[in-house]
């Protein structure tokens, strides 16, 4: 039987013991053995702290985000084999989708957040700069850096893929190396995904390690800077948290434990209402998805006392329709528990619940293509607690399977009180269309819940469901639920980061944070900042504008154009008792006039105004005042660009407007999209001629079989086709791939060296030469390039077919030629 290998200190290592046999939850057949005996855990931790930390922490947040995306794409291409293994854990296709592709989706989400919101630096500036001295020569701010240690991540058996990836998404993005310790049950699926993560070659050495089996004494070796993330029972979590190595070494500990989550049906949601039907469907889904093996599943069904019978009947009928059995059968809607050991544990909890509450539904015991003897199947079980304020077992015992308990309530006060008797839950839901009931219940129960999910007819179509933690929202809960927090968008990174206050002069803070601070030295140059590409802009680049004297006509005209006739701008007789001496210029006029002073009218790399932040007006500007603007590059944010957008980054510019007395009247931050410098040559004919001067008959090709003249004639043919002489007869790229290929013209990725043009002869031969020699070919090529430029000036809307990219317009042809020329000029070492 295959023994699952562990991945520690950069190597796949097999345990030396007998290990734990792992079984197919559906058939009972042995699948694998997990074994960690003989592993050097101390060495694994040290490897992570040294090699892993050095490699990850030196990367920027932006690059780590790109890393997550590449890993997720690599795994997505191989998802079929993960599903085949997931069925062996008892999971249906839908269960597996949530686990597998839900895990990949978490990586994609955090990649997107990083590329939109995090800096292209290994640290992250947190919050605004604080002025902590009278004259602003001493400032303070905070930076976040990766905690110098390794993260041990102990996951539960119910989500072998998502459980690993949701923790790794934040730790890897934060720059902290991790050791993944899945539950042995289902670890063969975790192992398969992890193997592909390593084989992708995307993750730096030491970033991740894997222990498939018992954790042994690994927690004995944790130290300051390390962290432990635990998902599992509250009892085990509390035990780990109190270990001397954790409690005594200030090791960060995050626990996400089991919880007795509830769902509350609104008082008004009687049978026949959309909310009643939604409630039944949601409870059934939460009882049967993953066979109830979800830390977010509904364990307590809180219902108005006059609707208990209706809910019991409707829910029983809905559960009757849920076919249980082999996940590979199309009929199956609920699979098995993960194994016989878990089955026995759930059965023990069911018997405890029976001691105080009534089992009112035990399900149909028919199975699809499976049997109870071999598999770990359990029918859904519904209990009734008729006195939930007296019988406490429903609030104390969680059966981690398809088991839930009905309980009645009288009013919103009682509903919230029952919800809180779970002593801390990951999620509670309210299904109601009564906004007053929802509001009163939700804020009263919020203190004992990590998430409150409200469902009704208005959001049902797009709802993600009671039991679905989302990457952008916090997953965790107080009290019994462990008191931990995971995900929650960028907040989920804070657990892995050290927050440090930084104090110093404006120039010192600028040097440390790479963000311009007011009062720091400005850099002036003859080149307008808006004429610089993203790579050329440096924080501190500045422009001082000419002055502009504001007139009465300016104020009147702006009032008429904007329709802003606020009295302070238009009625001098109404200013008594105000802060104004006379009619005042509109604040937005001052900002607009400032833009008029600092923008560069000439076309350049600045693509568009992207936004406005932190705009403040400090002093009134009256007719006769003269304003001057200081524009300074404040911060640069790298940016991932998709589709047919120009590769660009965001530059934040500090705008400081002063009057003739050098008093600051307005400060704002504007955001611009600034194009990145293209790595491809432009279509300037003189430039192309200059490059071609270096090409001779004896110039060797660095790759491929073309001679210099064949290359030039090949380029000339592409230019001729681009203005229809001759018109390409067909496109060789399938229609369904054309959009992707056309999008690729806009990015800055070079054409692949090994690409074979589909219109060339399939036998590998090259077209016959048409010009008498290389010089004649070069001259003809340049002449036709001139014709191309003139043609599209005269016919800007023209489109012509390309053999690979389909029908292209002027912009696309220019982009194609730039890439194509660069590709072949590099082929012969000309650029």
TrEMBL record:
Residue ranges, annotated region (Disordered):
460-484
* Organism of provenance: Chryseobacterium flavum
Going by the entry's taxonomy, the superkingdom of the source organism is recorded as Bacteria
Protein name according to UniProt: Phenylacetic acid degradation bifunctional protein PaaZ
UniProt-listed SUPFAM superfamilies:
ALDH-like, Thioesterase/thiol ester dehydrase-isomerase
Task: Using the record's annotation, list all stretches that form the MaoC-like domain.
Answer: 539-639
Q: Where is the Aldehyde dehydrogenase domain?
A: 12-499
Q: Kindly give the InterPro entries that the UniProt entry links to this protein.
A: Ald_DH/histidinol_DH, Ald_DH_C, Ald_DH_N, Aldehyde_DH_dom, HotDog_dom_sf, MaoC-like_dom, PaaN-DH
For this protein, what is any one GO molecular function term?
A: oxidoreductase activity, acting on the aldehyde or oxo group of donors, NAD or NADP as acceptor
